[in-house]
Hints:
The complex is a heterodimer. Chain A is mainly α. Chain A is 64% helix and 0% strand. Chain A has 10 helices and no strands. The two termini of chain A are 30 Å apart. Chain B is α+β, with helices and mostly antiparallel strands. Among the domains of chain B are: 36 residues, no CATH class; 70 residues, no CATH class; 82 residues, no CATH class. Helices cover 59% and strands 13% of the residues of chain B. Chain B is built from 14 helices and 4 strands. Chains A and B meet through helix 3, helix 4, helix 7 and helix 10 of A and helix 2, helix 3, helix 4, helix 6 and helix 8 of B.
Amino acid sequence: MSTTLSPGMSLNPPSAAGHSDATDELSAEASAEIVAAQGGDHNAFARLVERHEAAVLRLARGLARRPEDAWDLYQETFTKLYTTLPRFRFECSFSTWVYRVATNAGLDYLRRQRVRQGLWFPLGEQERKSGEWSNPERTLLSREIQGRVGQALAHLPARQRVVFELRHYHGLRLRVIADILHTSEATAKNALFRATRRLRDELGDLIPGGEA
Amino acid sequence: MKCRQAVRAMTLLGEGEADAELERHCRECPECAQQAGLTRGLASLMSRAREGQATDEERLPAQRAALLARLARLAPVRPPIMMGWGTVPQKMPQMGVATAALLLCGFAGGWAARARLRPPAAGGSGTNDATRVAQYQVEGIEAGAAGVAIRYRVVRQGRLQGRLSDGDVQRLLLEAVEHPVNAGVRMDAMRLLGQAGPTPAVEAALVAALREDPNPGVRLRALAALTPMVTAERTRLLGALALAAAEDGNAGVRTQAIQALGQTAAAAPLLRAIGDGTADTTERLSCAAALQRLGATVPPQWLSAGLETQR
């Protein structure tokens, strides 16, 4: 996914595809679909999956180290969503609910990774060659840069990483991110600030004008 | 808008709140304008790093089909029933709910108490006993005519024991550096990370704490851990120390940062600049002492300001 940046003062893109705010999303039709899925309508649930899977996959791909892990997160998210759907009471946007489930799965994954396998480092040479991440376009960006960016993201604490991911790559507003993470906007803001600062420190020499 | 506010506002560009104000500030402050440029550069870099990523979306239909087939085999999702005590599974008899809840609380409470009282694991390196529920933190209570709804968080407790060189130990310590409540935990973590040796992650965490931790004691601890890491090659670390020496709100932190800079001759120009810039005689004296230890020249105007007698 690419983020368009104007040469002006825009660090974060406006709301990216795959997410819309609560008010416009819960149209009568969408609500009816959710209610139908809550009532056990399998087709309605399938349509919900179809509508939200791109965003879930994008988040999973951003957080997971390997493609297969991302697909596991995708499966885990929608399985949890299926089992917890009866508890959705229209108190927030459905996409916020979906993001919340996906984010929790992602946070669990990040913590498991840290404890079991150690800090993420960029994929090894062999993994990179055989992995499904690689494609011809990707080689346009030097391996060093990709490796450094991956490493810098991996150094972030799990919550900071998720906040940065949702803000930068999904274009969500802090209010929505705070809602997803069940925290205050100030806490989310602080996490984003710390994440940005740390990334800037670690990647400063890759940014034009960053290595003074 | 002050520079400190501007730096925070840079990460929030696009929220619309302070954009115009920040832009105005950047027109007047070249340093913040440069920082804003760096933040934009970071955004661009992070986006480029994902540009070539394979989307894999062609696998979505197959994955979705597998998911839905698996879910179809699960018990069907049923709508909840609202009862006096909130939402409960449909099959549970109403009369049994309160009993079940009470039993559950009893078991959980006893389990939590045992977990807290359990003695620590026996010695040895590299053990990590399974996490267990240690506490239920109530986050909110809503009472109404229909009953009570309690929102709570389950806290799990675990114990990791290992050497400082163990990756898992270091990772938990890095997490502990940002403990949101307990400054003592943050300080302990920093002290131990300082002993663990300089790695990029440790250095970044300590530098971040030095810049951002609201507690001056914690910042001092971060400085103490960073001091042995100071070398001429670590320009980023020298920059962070110089910033602390010049701008930290706490005089103790400023003085200790000056002393830390005095570890390497490469910091001599920074020390001169800090000494020139400060109005505080003690700080200038610290700069002079550090320069002398390095064998560097102390600016004569400092001596004429009365420092000579103190030497």
